[in-house]
Amino acid sequence: MVTGPAGGKPERPPRGRAPLVIAGLVVAVVVVVLAAGSLLLTSSSDSSSATGEAAEAGADPDQPERSPGVNPSESPAQGADPGNGGQETGAPAESADPSETEAAEAYTVVHDRVPLTLRAPAQRTYTHVEPDDATITPNEGNYLVGGVEFLYGNWNPAVAGLEFLTPTGLAREPGPESCRTGQRTDVLPGPVLMADLAEGDPVGSGTLLCTVTTEGDLAMLEVTGISDEELPEITAELTLWDIS
What we know:
Elements: H1 18-56, E1 80-81, E2 87-88, H2 98-101, E3 107-118, E4 126-130, E5 135-140, E6 150-153, E7 161-164, E8 168-170, H3 176-185, E9 192-193, H4 194-199, E10 208-212, E11 218-226, E12 234-243
């Protein structure tokens, strides 16, 4: 047993500084942990906020930012200048007008204003008009004959009149272009009976009848007169063009 001097109480050994150091280290560790936790919470909050904003904007926060209006998945248009913002150089190509791409038809006169007279056909006969040959054949008993485009028929008085064996239209004025347009776009629906001829509607003096013949030519029959008889006499002038 260790006794102090002069028989007093035993002297306690001096306390070391180790507990104070340990306490200081514990406090420092706690401070560091709290600071790190605060930083983690702040970073997580900022990340969540950025993610939410990106989701609202429809963007992927993990993708690199790109310039507005530019889609990296799309390559510049063919003929575009990348150094000019992807804009195409030169004027854009214009679509062609189909009517301009069609080869224009050429017309060559074959018969020019040949006078024709269609007299009233006999009972149960037809008068044939053949524009390709510029001929008339009266009193034919056969209805369907090759090469015939116009008929003046009197087979049955109830339906006597002009008949058309090829699509026939009305031209607005003389000339192949107008005749071709009428033949295509203003086609008569059927025969023109005697009563209609007497009234001049749709066929009367001055009417221009146009058709493409069985030989592929363009024929224009201009009616120049219709008599006042029950079965009238019809006068006309025939013009024929070759189409090429």
